[in-house]
Structure formats: C-alpha cells, structure tokens
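Readers outside the structure-tokenisation community will struggle with the description of the input data as it stands. I therefore recommend that a typical entry be quoted early in the introduction. An entry of this sort, consisting of the sequence and the corresponding backbone structure tokens, reads as follows:
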Amino acid sequence: HTGNLKFPLCSARSPKKFRHGQGREASSPIIFKDTLFLKRQKSPSPDMGTVDSSSELSLPGRVSRVFTPASTLMLFALISAVFYAERRAFFRNELGALVSSLDLEGFLAFHFTVLAAFAALLYWYLTRPLAVYVLDYDLWQPKREEESKYACTRERFKALLENARETTAIRAPGFDRARTVQSALNKRLTPDGEPAAFTQESIDFQMRIFERNGVGDFGYFPEMLWAQSPNMAGARDEAETVMFGAIDNVLLKTKLTPKDIDILIVNCSLFNPTPSLASMIVHKYGMNSSIRSFNLGGMGCGAAPIAVDLARDLLQSHAGKRALLISTENITQNFYFGQDRGMLLPNTLFRMGCSATVLTNKRSDVWRCKYKLLHTVRTHLGGRPEGYRAIFEEEDSEGIRGGRLSKELGKVAGEAILKNLQSLGPKALPVSEKLRYAWNMFCRRVLGKKGPAYVPNFKKAFQHFCIHTGGRGVIDKMEKTLSLTPGEVEPSRATLYRWGNTSSSSVWYELAFIEKKRRIRAGQRVWQIGFGSGFKCNSAVWEALPAAERVGV
C-alpha cells in the first residue's frame, strides 16, 4: 500500500547524492509488505444493460438542457406577464381601493424581485460544476519475494547490455539483417559466442549515463526483458502485473468492488494491444457492461493530468459516479537494442511502475476523500515541427525501433513549461502576485522601461511540487526556473532515485513520498506537472483534505 512504500532517506541538506545518482540508504534492505489480492469477479451481472446517456445525465446536466439562457429569459417574461395580469384583475374588484391604500403594488414588486433572485440562485446551484475528489490512490510495487526477479541494479543492467543478442532486436521489414551484422554488430560477441546487440562503445555510453542521471539501484525491469524475450506475451504479462497489482491495492484501501466503478481511464503510451488495456481490466475484474472505458495511447509521460482532465469532464456531467484512473508504461517491447545514442538514453531512465487512482463526485464519499481537484491546464506544442518531433518513435538506420530524444528537447520543454505557467498563473496565484506581474508588464510594454520579466512566486500558490521524474536535468531546470529549494524538489529526486522514470505515474509516486514524510496538511495545495511527447506540458492542482493528514497514522 502507499503507506508501505520505502524511499531512501534524504533531506534538503543533502540533495547532491540524488543529483548524481550515488546515494546509499541509511537502512537496508528495503522492506516491502505483501500485496493482498482481492477475489476476481466472475462475470458482469446479466441484468446490466448498455449505457443510456440521456438517463445517466446528472441533475445539473438535465436542468442545463431545459434551463438554457433563452428559456430562462422566456420563463421570467411569462412570470412577469402573469403577475401583471393578476394585479390588474385584482384591482378591478370592489376591494381595489382598499388594497391600493395599502400599497400592494410595492408589496408585489418586492416579492417578485425576491422570487426572481431565488430562481436565479436555484438555476446557478443546479447547473454549477460538480466538485471532483480523490477518494484514494495506490501504486504498484513487487512483493518482497519477487523483488529480486525485477530489480535493476547497475550490475544486472550492465550484464543485460553485455549479454544482449543481436537477434533480440526487433527490426522493421526490408532491412538486411546479415548486412547489418556484417557492418556494425559483429565487432563483439556475447559470452555465448553470438553476435551482440550492443557495441562496447554503446555499453560504455549507457553505463556513463546510468551513473549520472539520478537513477539508483532500486528500479525494476520486466521479467521477459531479463530473459531477452521481448514478445507480445511478455508485454501483456508486464501490463497485467503492474496494473492488477495497483488496482488490487486501491480497491482494498477504498473498500470498493469492481462493480462500484462507473468510469475507467487507462493511459499507456507505447503499448496498445487489441483488445485494449482497458478491456483487459474489465475482463479481469468482471466490471459492469455499462462502464464507460477509455484507453489513451501515445500521450507520453505527461498523460496522468490528461487522464485527470478527462475524468473531471465526465464526472462534472454525471452525478454520483466514480472513476478509476490507471497510469502506466510498458518496457518489454520498447527497450532499444541499437547503437543510436539519441535512442539509447531511455534505456537508462525508464523503469516499471503504475498508479491506480479513484476519483469521485459522490457526496457520500466526500468525508473520506483525500484531495479536491482545483485546476487542470494542458499545453500542446505539436503545431510546431520541433515540438512534434522532440520525442519521436521510429526506426534507426538499421531498422531497429526505439524512441528518439531530439537535441531541441530542452528548448521545447522550457517553452511548454512557460506557456503552461502563463495559463495556470491567473487561476492559482494570489492577487498580490497577479498585481506584481501586471505592473511589471505595464512598465516594460507601456512605459518602455528595461528590465527582466517578473516571474511570479508560485510557492505562494502551491506548498508541494510533484515534478515529473524525466531525469536529473529536468528536475534541475524546474528547480532553477521556479526558484525552488532543495527540500521542495526532494520528492522528485527521491522518486527518480528509488523508482526511476515510471513515466506518467511518477507524479503519484512523488505524492506518496510527500505523504510518507507526513508533510501534507489540510488546505495545502499540491501541483502535479508532467511532460510528454507531442510536445505537451500538463498540470493538475489539488487541495489537501483532512483525510490526507491521516496517512501512515
């Protein structure tokens, strides 16, 4: 469970050991608690039918269809006409003179005003967006007895590179394997005497990156990658291992059954089989046939806030629902076995991981919810060639598939972050920071004064930062841009060191670190920010509720 996640001990006074990937835990070995698995639900209930979107609309959704601005104006006009007609009919009778002396016209005008104000307030109440909460979340971690099967230490990683066979690489059709082996890959052999996948230069390059990228000896690789069998069956097994483990944990914590889930959203960028990963979960747990399922692919490491944004839109349109969000990535078929250095970097960063989060808008759940969603902001620079190709999956010159990180990635990422902050600032910053920013802009653009642009102090808007663990350089850049202290980026560095880059789920691993350190207080705000291919920068802002303080108690 989240409360049992173990991170290396770190403090704001000693962040460099994470920065260079050379920290050593004060207490070892790392202890994990066995995961308790729930019984599998056999099949969907036979009486569950298909989804009827009109019948499942929430009260705000149904009312908003009827009380449009035009229909509301017409209703007020009709009420006014009725009051006017009744008043004229009333004053025609013989009591009119008596009532007129009592100033009944003013009396009716007052009550009409009150009625109109009440109607407007009722309309606002019925059509306001529903609040969205995190009921709870949990993360995948291997059982203690299975840890050695997945563990990726430096020694095992180097052995994997040295023993990788040339035949392990998955090549695109049309490439002459014999010519490729003759040209490059036959310069060294594996200990078994077979042509090797990596040259000695490629092995040395990856090990140097491993030593400097901030990743420790505690991450995990899938079992079939260690066995050098990156096939479809192995990729499915990896997906089932991490997703089912996280889901079992979160269902156990929330005391929910699979049939209590109304919406299912799964995001995995590089592995999208048929049937989808969402269907894999529905089949495993026997979820209702009326469940609304979504499978997000190709969204990269910033997909977690995208899934949250989609769930928010659905929950704000349908009252009394719960949504299960799964964020993961798949490594089995996406480990690069070539020589292109631009495509070798992900080998040293990415590790197994998965998060399962339950969002809800049910009033009966609010008392035990941990966070309330405040804002989501999405920025997409895919309209520019350099943004679109910043992270690009393709074949290299030898037909081996992998993900390429372009040289423009740092520049594109910085621009995406800036645009995201420009959209998020007006929503989240306090008034004092907004005024300072506006005055600085007025002085520079209107008065012509020279000087640097004012960077708002986002630490006045957020107390905790969950920055995507894209690598040591990414965290350093965010620390410098936002003027954060080493203690404020400690969750990101510790998560990168302990778990590696788990892609989109990394922001939830970081939140678990903050909770484990007992730093969350009710009313504080948490900012999750992720970056991904496209190029995208996405943010989600949460407000901590009293239940978040009780974690680990």
Remarks:
- Confidence is low (pLDDT under 50) at residues 8-58, 181-186.
- The chain is about 40% helix and 15% strand.
- The two ends are 13 Å apart (CA to CA).
- The first strand starts at residue 133 and ends at 139.
